[in-house]
Each structure stands twice: as structure tokens, then as C-alpha cells.
Write a structure and sequence with these properties.
By secondary structure, the protein is an alpha/beta fold. It has nine helices and four strands. The chain has a four-stranded parallel β-sheet with strand order 1-2-3-4, covered by helices on one side. Strand 3, helix 4 and strand 4 form a beta-alpha-beta unit. The N and C termini lie far apart (about 50 Å).
Amino acid sequence: MHERQKVADMVRAVKKGCGKDFCVSVKIRVHKDLRETTDFVKAVGAAGVDYITCHGRRRSQRSSEPVDLDAIKLVKETATVPVVANGDVFDIKDVQRIVNYTGVDGVMSARGLLSNPALFAGYDTTPREAVEKFMGYAVKQPLPFPLVKHHLSEMTVKMLSKKERLEMLDATNMLDLIDWLDERFELPRG
């Protein structure tokens, strides 16, 4: 945010090198001084950015603090390109609330999708089938084992008790984890 000219130059350089049809986006956080935010948005817009994702917190803010929807709304009002809102999206109601309040063109989620990868399909909690699919992908395209356990722990917060999740996290390898899950989910093979 403090080097808007450098970012604008980068956007121009990518557009020049890759062609005007190459999609370039910028993700920002809001600045304490919202004038800094709007000046940044104008600079990257003039440089040819295709869309802007705006996380509605300052860099120094913790995720436990609510996003600033007014700041996201200001970014949307300032931008000449589509704006995607980010922050505090945990269910479809959050998506609708953010879109209705800010007028943004899209919404992204990070922590919400970790706990419910089927969020944008309209599910309030992770469906069992999502756990099964994730494990199928994790076996076919291996991920680091600690990452598999982390994702499963997030996905099963509303599905398993804390004690069960701790038991699951005790698995020391993929086979033990699959066996543990099989006892609860009967994972499909194939």
C-alpha cells in the first residue's frame, strides 16, 4: 500500500509483457487512512489492473476483529474495475450480506472455505462427501501429511467432537489416518 507507484508499474509491466488480454489482479488490505487506500485503487486502476480483491482489515488487525465493510464499499465506489471482497465469509448469508452492503462484484473466502469447502455450493457445514473427496485427492496427489491433518481438522470442526479431532490428529501416517477415518466415514475406494 505504501508503494502504489511500484505496484502500478508492475501491473503495467505484466500487461505489456503478457498482453492486454492477460488477467492481472491486485489484492489489497485497507489502510488506516482510507485516502491512501483510494489513491492506491486509482493508481492500479489507471495502470490497467483487471480486478481488485479487497481484504477489509488493515495489515495490523487480527482476524478476530470484524472486517470494515464501509472501507470495502469505498473501494468499490472508487474502483473502475470489478472488486472482490475478502474477510469474514463463513456461510452464504455472509456472502449475501457483504454483497448487499458493499455492492462488490464477488466475494472470496479463506478461513470459511477451510472449515467448509462446500460453502459456495450452499452447505452450512462440511458434507461428509467433501471429506471423502478431499481424502481421495490427497491420496492421488499427495500433500504433506501435516497439511492433510490440518485441513481435515478444520473441515470436521462441526462433524467431530474435539476429543475425536484430537484422536484423528494423533495419526502418525496416512494409512493410520485412513484407517481412523474409515471407522467413522467408510471412505470409498477407487
